[in-house]
Amino acid sequence: MYRRACSMRKLNEYRIRKSERMYDELTRVVDIQKSRMANFLRFRKDPLGFLVDALPLGDVVSLRTSAFQPTYIVNSPDFIQELLVHEEENLRKGRSSSVLRRTVGDGLLTTEQEEHRRQKRYMMPTFYKERIQTYARIVTEETERVADGLKAGEPVAMHDLMMRLTLGIISRSLFNTELDEEKAKLADAVDVTIRQSAGTIFSPIIWPFALPTPGNIRLKKAIGTLEALIFGAIAAARQAPERYADTMLGLLMDTKDEEGQPIPDQEIRDQMMTMLLAGHETTANALVWAWYALEREPQAERRLHEEVDALRSKERASGEPLPAYDRYRQLTYTKQVVQETLRLYPPAWAILRETEREIEMLGERFERNSSFLISPYAIHRNAEVFGDAGAFRPERFDEGISQWPKFAYFPFGGGSRGCIGSQFALMEAGLILSTLAERFRFVSAQGQGEGEPEPLVSLRLKNGRLMVPISR
Q1: Could you tell me which residues are annotated as the binding site?
Q2: Domains of the chain
Q3: Mean pLDDT of 366-392
Q4: Record's InterPro entries (predicted)?
Q5: Which of 49, 150, 230, 426 has the fewest other C-beta atoms within 10 Å?
């Protein structure tokens, strides 16, 4: 009750500050000033800059698009809560799901309404605590293997390194499959699917997938590469189910629906494809940003090293290392580094929703087929909520996220469509950071300049980052 009261007090303070601004007294929806074409071109050129610049304009910013499909940028936490929680039955993901369905099919990421709820019910056990504990061991083992292969002073492409590491982790967690010889090919296939999907989601024209455009041809080839892995694992699991008993695949193959029927192979394929893509690319991107941010904030980097060193000394003194998950639970500052990275560089930089019917939210009416664009990237940079919002300060999480209004910080979305694997992702990122930071610090190779975000399906550091591991 205390946390809820604090959250409500913060939200009321936020609303009061907002009301003091010189908005139209009759509405919280304001029109953007530039023309539709000017806004479209600016968004295409620099979507993140466009969304950040729209943050101070109003709680809900109308882009003055067509009457048939009005489009809004939503900046206010209370409107975001209405959209993602209270009005979710009246909304669909729309265009983003249609595009992603080309790759992942009808999995948890793309299904709607009752079908989504049905799938979520049987997927939830794959992320129960006892499963997370098993995955934690895999994360540590795979990260130690990567650390053993690093050579001090020899530059590494950090994006490629993190992608291959998280791909190895998710592959073992999903299929109990080692990918040493195939990681490069599979990582390339993931990259193609991400780039092609991102380019299509925000394109004014979506070409039919059956059309043999160069992009569609590349995407279909990449999907074939990923499907070969998934269907190969399904076939192997049919032959030797005991080998897959502790994996996500094994759990799904043992699952029955409400009518007692097993999940069809195609549906398992769709869930595995969803987890394979969403379950490693987003975490890899966040980790690259974390290494980049730590390099630029020596005090944060020092505190991270102090924490992992102190925990390792404690383990040595006891003569017995902690299980991986128990180790993660004691890494307080490391968790805050992950949380602050997700604040400044949330992989899900934009969330799209569309209305299926006319709705009313907080006294405002929105027509059927209205589109809403919510940007955690922009909202997490609200100086009225976070103070020095552009600075990387993990200690701002000392008091937890309840200190801020609900949906002022939401790197994993919210409502029933919030990321089902959020606890897995936090654990994975924390253990990878701590395991590598125990042995190395990373500095950027010279001549690269400042890091620039690249908003694809998830938020990347543009052109990756060449970094040099320095032994500690």
Answers
A1: 419
A2: 19-471 (1.10.630.10)
A3: 96
A4: Cyt_P450 (IPR001128), Cyt_P450_CS (IPR017972), Cyt_P450_E_grp-I (IPR002401), Cyt_P450_sf (IPR036396), Cytochrome_P450_Monoox (IPR050196)
A5: 49
